[in-house]
C-alpha cells in the first residue's frame, strides 16, 4: 500500500500531509484537515453532501483521492464566510429562505451554488437549477433551496 | 382511548408579558448560522484521544446456522485492536427494549449468536485504528454457515418455517378479531355499494442523510459518555440505563446536531449497543459511523404492509360499515413487535362510520427489522382516500361530495369514533372548504376533458386526514416534557428543554416561545437540548409532539418565571406586580415615573442578596416545569394535487400541489411549512420511486442510492400553503403538531391524482412504487382491452368491484398461532391448583407487559388481583376444571372491560385477554408460589 | 465503504502508464475521472492491486480536428468538452450526449475516455461513439491499435481492451453538412442512467438519406447499434419514409431486460415511440430548414 506526500491549499491556507493512496479526499478533509463541514452522506457520489470546490469547480470529494488533490486549491464550506462571521451570499440566501433543516446536505449545496453564482463566473439560471439535481435533501422538499437558488441565479426555473 | 381530559388546559393564557410578537413569526433559525458554515457538530465530527473505529462483519445470507467463525486472519492484520463476537459481549447483561421501553417478544441478540436471521445481521465487530483497516479486517473474517431457506415476504411468513423457532408462530403481534363478525359481514354483503381496495405497500428506508452513528467513551468511574445520532438524548440515556441496569445519571448522551432521522433513530439498536459494550470491554473510546451500504441493508426499515379494506355505502354514498384486514412485515428483529393499532385508530377517525371491525397482524420474516418512519400508521390514509375515490367513481359521486357527506365537521363534535376516539376539534372538512376556495375544480375538469381529446392525461387528486400529535395515551415515555428556564447570575437567559432537533429547528421555535413569554429579545435566549445531563427527561422528537409538549412546557415555565420576576421587581420598585411589564429584555415599572431595571440587576439581587427579596421568596431566578399536554392533540388537513401522466412513457409530472391545514397556532410558519414540504417530498418518493426490495433469497436488491431512488429537486414541485382553517388547540399555546402529516396525506393525494388522470384506462392497479414502467403497463394493458372491446377510445372502463373482489379470494394456509383457547378441558373433578402467586406477561399492542398477581378459588368462584406499578386491579371470575374466566375493568388508558380466558397446566398458565376494539392479547403465566 | 488497499501511481507519460499496466500483469486499474470507479472501489466491488492515475498525463488531454476527424483526448473532462468550441462545431451530438452524463459536479471530474472505456450499457457516451462510427486508439507496451467503437463492447463493463491496454485517443469522424442529430434519453431522475436511450446522426442530401448512424443505450447488455434501421434509412427518400416501420427495425436489434427500474417490455414500448418521434422530429426539422 503506497503512501504519498501531498501539498495543497485548503481554504486559503497551506496543508502538507502524508496520505495513503486509498484515502478519499472527503476523509482527508474531515480528518487531517479538520474540515468536518464536509459531510459524507453516501460515499458513492450520489447524494452530493461532500461537494467541495477543487480549483474553483464543484466536485464530489468522496469521488476523489486525497493524493489526487496534490497541488490543488480546495475550498470547503468552512472557507466561505468572512472572518468577521458575515455569511457568504449563498449562505445568507439559504438562511433567509429556510433552505435547510437538518443541515447535513447543506454544505454540498452551498458549495455547488457558490461555484456557480460567483460574481465573476455566474452560470445561467437553468444551469444552476440543473446542478442542484446533483444533491439529495431528505428534509426540506427543496422548497427553500429552490427559492434561494432563484434569488442567487435569477430566472424562473 | 384518549378523551382529552381537561387537565392543565388553559385555553387562553394570560398575557403575563408584553407580547414581543415572536410566536407566529417567520424567524430565521438559530441553528442555521453554524450549519451553513460547517460548524455543526454531528456525531462523526466528534474526535476523542485514543478513539478506535468499528466495522461490522455481517451475514451474507438471510437465514442459517453459524457453524464456525474464523477470526484469526482478521486479528493478525496490523492496525487491528480487537475482533469481537457475541461470545465476547456475553459477559454483559443487556435487556434490549422497544421505544416504549418494553421487552421484545423474541430475544434480540446484540450480535448474532448461533444463527443469522437476515442479510446484514451483525456477526462480528472489528475494532481498529481507522475505518479503512477495520473494513479490511472485517473482510478477512470467515464464517461457515448452514444456509436455510428464508422467509422473506408477508406471504412467506404465513406459510413458511418459523423465523424464531421458540415462538408459537410467525405472528409477531396481533390485534382485532380473528373471527368475522357475522352482523358486520351481513352489512357489507347487503349494502347498496360494497367497495374494496386491496394492495401491498413497499418497504421504505428512512434514509436520513446522516446515517446512524455512535461514539462511546467509557470512564474509569463507570460512567459513560455516548455521543449519539438520535431523536432525543434524554430518552436514549434512559434506554441505555434501563437496558444496562445502570443509573441514568451515569450515562450522558450527547446529541448536538443530527442529520435527519424520520423514526430511524428513536432508540439505540443492535449496532449502537454493541459499540457501547465493546467500549466498556476494551476501555477505549470507540466510534462507529454507519455507511450508506449498511444503512440501506442493515438499518431497520418500515412500511412493508398489506391491507384489504372493505367498505359498505348506502345509496347516497354514506358510510355504513367497514372491515380492514392488515399485515405488517416486522422483519426478524423489530424495534417493538407491532401490528400497528394506530392504522385502525385513525382509518375512520374523521368520518361518520357506524360500524368498524378489523384484524391486524405483524409478521416475522428473515429481513431487516421494523422501525418507525414518519407517520408509521400512514397506510390508513392511503387506503381510505384511495377507496373513497373509487367509491365515488363507482357510485357516481364527485370525490369531493363523497367526502363532504361523510366527514365529521366541527359542529358534529364532540363525538366518538367506532374505535373509541373522542373527537372535540378536528377539522378536515373545514380544511377541505378552504382548499376548494383555492382550486377552480370546474375549470380544471374542463381543461382535463380538453386535454384528453389531445391524448394528454391530467388528474386531480384530493385527500383529507387527521393526525394525532403529541399523543401520550397509555404511553409512559411520552407523558410529559420539561423546560428549565434560568435567568443566570450574569443576567443571561438560558433554557434547557427536553425537545430535540434532527432538523426540526426546535432551538429556534422554543427560543421564540420563551422570548415572547418572558419579554426578552429572541437573541438573548440561549436554548440547549443536546445533552441528557443538562435537563430533565423528555422523549425528544417522536409523534409530532415538540410544538405541543415542548412549546407548552416552555410557556408554563416562562410564565412562572415572569410571575416571580414581577413579584420581585414590584417589591423592589415599590409598585404593584400588575404595574411591572417585561419587554425588550428589560423590566419596567409603569407609573407616574417609569422605572427600568435589567435582568442583570434583578439577578444580582436574586442570587447575591436574597435578603432583599420579599418574605418567603426563594433565592435565584430559575424555574423548572414539567408539562403534561392533553393526551392527544389533533391536526387536520386537506390537500390537492394536479398531475399529468405521459401516456407514452408512464412518467408523472406534478404540476400543482395545494395544502390547507389546521395545525393550530403556529410558532414559526416557515418551520411549519418546512415540515409539511419535507413530508410531502417523502410521500412523492414513496409513491413514485422509493423501494427496498429483496430477491427470493432475501438479498436486498437496492443497496445504493442509484437503486434506492430518492426524489431530487426536479421531482418535488413548489407547494402552496393555506393556514386559514387553523383554530387554536386546547393545549397550552394552542399549538398542534405538524411533523408527520405531509408523509401521511401526501401518498393518497398523489395516488388519487394519478388514478384520476388514468381513469380512462380503468381503475389504477395499486402496485407501489408507481414507476413509469408500472404505469405504462397499466395504460397499455387497458389500451389493448379497449381496442379489443370497442373502437371508441378513451372511454372510461370501470371495473366492477365485485369482479375484482372475486378474483382475490385465493386462500393460503396460514401458519397461525396455536390457539390459546383451551383444547381439552380437564375434567372438573380433577384437582387443579389455581391458588397462589403468579407472574404474568400480557402481549399488548404497546409491547409485552409483565406483572404479578394472586389468585384464589372458592368452589367455582375465582378471585384475584394483578399488581402492576404499585397499582392493584381486583377481579372475580369462575373456575371450571383447569379453565378460568374473569373480567377486569380498567380506566387507564381508557375505560374498558378486559375479558380473560385461561387454562392452567401445572405451574403454567396460557390464555388470552379480549381487549374490546383492540382485539385479543396473549397471556402467559408462571406460578411463583402456592 | 472504504477502498481496499492499493498502490497508487501517477505517471506523467503514456509510456510510463503502459509500463505500469504491463508490470502489474492484469492487477492494475486505470483511473481517469473516477466518477464510476470510485464508488466501485468504495463498495469493494473493484479491488485492484495497483491504481494508475491518468490525470497527470498531458498527452491525454485536449480536442483537435484534422482531416475530417475529431480527436478527443480521453481525459478531457466532461464539462470541458461541453464548453469546448471545437467540439461544439465538429461534434454537436457528443456535446448533447455529454450534457446528459451524471451531474454538473461529476462532469467537473468525469472524463470522456473514462465513460467510453467503462462500457456501462445504459451510458450516453459509449452508444454515441458507436452511433457516430468512432474508434479508440489503444496503447500498450505491445504497441498501438485501433478498435472500432462498435467492436469495443461485449457486455456490461466488458470491453475488448486487454488488461494492459489503455485508450489514448477517441477518434470520431466528422459527419458532413446536412447531418441532423438525434438524442433522446428517458431517465427517471436527472443524471440517472437511461431506462431508454437513443443517440445518432442522419445525413440528408437532396431529400434523401445518405448516411445513418444510430445506437441505443439502456436497451441491452451493451450499447446497441440499430443496424437494420440504419440500412433501411440509407438511400431512402425522406418523403417516403415510414418512421414507425423503421422504429420496428430499430427495436428488433435491441435486447433489453427487466431490472429494478423497468421491464424489458417497457423499454421496447417506449423505445419504439421515442425512436418514431425522434426520427420524425429530426427529419421534419430538416425539411423545414
Automatic annotation (TrEMBL), chain A:
It comes from the Bacteria. One of its GO terms (molecular function) is oxidoreductase activity. Pfam families: Fer2, Fer2_2. Keywords: 2Fe-2S, Iron, Iron-sulfur, Metal-binding, Oxidoreductase. Residues 4-80 form the 2Fe-2S ferredoxin-type domain. This is (2Fe-2S)-binding protein.
From TrEMBL, chain C:
GO terms for molecular function: FAD binding; oxidoreductase activity. Residues 1-177 form the FAD-binding PCMH-type domain. PANTHER family: XANTHINE DEHYDROGENASE SUBUNIT C-RELATED. PROSITE patterns: FAD_PCMH. SMART domains: CO_deh_flav_C. This is Xanthine dehydrogenase family protein subunit M. Keywords: FAD, Flavoprotein, Oxidoreductase. Gene3D superfamilies: 3.30.465.10, CO dehydrogenase flavoprotein, C-terminal domain, Uridine Diphospho-n-acetylenolpyruvylglucosamine Reductase, domain 2. SUPFAM superfamilies: CO dehydrogenase flavoprotein C-terminal domain-like (SSF55447), FAD-binding/transporter-associated domain-like (SSF56176). It comes from Solimonas terrae. Signal peptide: none annotated. The keyword Oxidoreductase applies.
